[in-house]
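Intended use. Records like the one below are meant for learning the mapping from a protein sequence to its folded structure. Do not use them to infer anything beyond what is encoded.
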Amino acid sequence: MQEYRVPTENKTDKVRRGLWVAFIVSASISIFLAFSSRKNPTYLPVESSPVFVDVTIPATNGVEPTLDNSRLLQTNADRPGFKALDLDQTIYILLTGLDKWDKNSESGAGLTDTIIVAFLDKSGGKAGLISIPRDTWVEVPDYGPYKINQAYMLGEAYGYPGGGPGILMETAGNLLDIEIDYYAQVDFQAFVVLVDAVDGVVVDVQEEIQVYPNANTKDVMQVLSPGEHLLPGDLALGYVRTRDTPEGDFGRTKRQQQLLIGLQEKIFSYEILPVLIPRMPGLYRDLTSNVETNLTLNQIITLAWVVKDINPQSIQTHVIKEPTVTADINDRNQYILVPDLDQIRKIWKDMQNISATPIPEPTQEITLEEYLAEENANLAVLNATSSPGLAGVTAEFLEEKGFQIGEVGNSNKFKDQTFIYDYSGKEHTVRALLSAMGYTENRLFYRSDPSVTADIVIVLGADWVQENPMDELE
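Structure written out for the chain above:
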């Protein structure tokens, strides 16, 4: 009997893993939604100038998707391009929150109020992230000294190669003495939409704080008293944006990480996927113009699976603050934070060299049958080949593995490849199904269609006839 082990993480472990993956997860969901039914042009990951490709996907009853998981979610050709994922090397990712409400009057570009650099070392089983304050005084390539959150605006305004993301990747990389490989940029509006999509996020407020749901107009102020609060998207954004506290920008950075932890815990909770999937069409509409990255969907999925297996004690976090930065006023009468480059780089290097103690083997075990029974997923198997009876034989094979088959039939089109469509977020059933059929996540697609009664739809392609784990078709 196949057995599944249940992780025995404590709250500290969740915090460590959550800080690294929360932003990636948030961006991943946004990117996934946009890829799932994007009507605007996207760019192919090629070394030359990108070309426009229409990847519109209509809502259907399990027909194959037209999207290509290798496309980049970018609507501007002047962006950092595709880069192959080499997990034998340490991966560096720039994670930014773009404030389009705070636009520069000349360029129209927003300011990056959240700047985080993450690293992932698969071979060493380590990951971490470091938060860079927005007022950090840095050398911006070609333009000289500026606050780091102004770098994006300069890149957008004056045509720097790669635009705002490109110049910010180089600027943050120079600060830490590394070359950053990827970026994931989420606008604050996308943040609001994501928090509302999971029905709010719980935060533990440490001290009374005044929050403006609309930080642009500041017309309705609310006071959050100490204790736990369930914050909707607008209040959550106000909570992480305000600097009207004794700690100023450093306090805001801490609250950003706190909110990311809460968002991560909500997204990773067992019951949230069935809630998110029916909301995907509306989420797509709200998010497509607010998320950007040079990571493909396949790369994001790969990174997520790698992080999932990392020892939480090996996930390091740090906020750059005094004494590694010193507050000052520059000759432009601006408040700035002057960094101690040697100390910051030493901290960053040490974060990547820390090793964790081994995690004890968990003792609680749950069988695959128990997981399948708990989710009670209803599967449909459709034959999209010229081989008669293929769906029936496959259904019998899957029933012997413990899956519930509610529908067996034929697809309306011939398919070369087999695809699996999840309409309900049955996580354990999907994973077990992929394993039983010998497939990886690149065959899995999430869909939202009220007319589909099955939880999971399997469309069998010609490749299933040629190669499969069933004795009946050998």
